[in-house]
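Run log // design_07
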């Protein structure tokens, strides 16, 4: 489905789609197998397969299944964001509407939504959108907590990161977002982004206009602790390092990589 998928994986999705056809019971059985395999292996690509299977049925206009899967519209909207590698304001409001629309007594839907958000393609899109959102906030001199789009992205990333725990415990409730991620970690991350931006700009200045200040070697207080203790913060820290690597900012990499090495993105089973 996505450009980065292999032909082999696409064939698996196609074969499953053909096997299921319009049979809702068979579709539900396949989904249960995917949940079980995800629990046993922690392999997030079973989450990818869950979303891909639904979108394949959507593309074939199998309304008998799409109309009864409560995750259909959410997955369809998220799929459009994944294709563009960005969650814009309009789609952000649509996704929030789907999440807020989960009714009492239907909380089990959150388990499937968390799997869909745990898909690496979805996670990639959410974190890339968060980084862009942070850069926009810096240009506007705004705080993270003032951005409803950023708060939703954090909410969805947190839901995806908690997929395994939710399905394993069968407690279908959105994980509470650590407020300190918003009030302390994100501001410290923004200060790191500012340092890196200043460095990039200064490198382009003539020698006589460059400042005598050296590039900071220490990270803001608490930054490393958040990467060690919070999955959402660690995911953002990882993606920012990848972003910096693309910019070939050696000073920033030397500053950030040690903190990332002390974190743990994959909890023990």
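design_07 sequence
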């Amino acid at each position: 489905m996505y450009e980065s998928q292999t032909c082999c994986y696409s064939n698996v999705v196609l074969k499953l789609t053909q096997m299921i056809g319009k049979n809702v019971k068979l579709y539900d059985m396949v989904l249960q197998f995917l949940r079980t395999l995800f629990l046993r292996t922690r392999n997030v690509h079973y989450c990818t397969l869950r979303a891909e299977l639904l979108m394949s049925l959507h593309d074939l206009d199998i309304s008998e299944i799409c109309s009864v899967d409560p995750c259909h519209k959410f997955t369809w909207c998220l799929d459009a964001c994944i294709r563009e590698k960005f969650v814009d304001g309009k789609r952000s409001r649509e996704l929030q509407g789907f999440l807020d629309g989960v009714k009492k007594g239907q909380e089990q839907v959150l388990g499937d939504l968390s799997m869909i958000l745990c898909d690496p393609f979805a996670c990639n899109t959410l974190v890339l959108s968060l980084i862009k959102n942070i850069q926009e906030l810096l240009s506007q001199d705004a705080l993270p907590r003032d951005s409803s789009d950023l708060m939703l992205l954090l909410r969805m990333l947190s839901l995806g990161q908690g997929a395994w725990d939710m399905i394993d415990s069968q407690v279908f409730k959105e994980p509470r977002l650590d407020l300190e991620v918003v009030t302390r970690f994100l501001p410290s991350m923004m200060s790191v982004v500012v340092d890196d931006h200043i460095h990039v700009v200064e490198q382009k200045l003539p020698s006589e206009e460059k400042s005598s200040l050296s590039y900071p070697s220490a990270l803001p207080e608490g930054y490393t602790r958040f990467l060690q203790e919070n999955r959402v913060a660690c995911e953002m820290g990882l993606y920012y390092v990848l972003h910096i690597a693309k910019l070939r900012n050696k000073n920033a990499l030397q500053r950030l990589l040690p903190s990332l090495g002390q974190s743990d993105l994959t909890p023990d089973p």
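Residues 1-7 have pLDDT under 50 and may be disordered.
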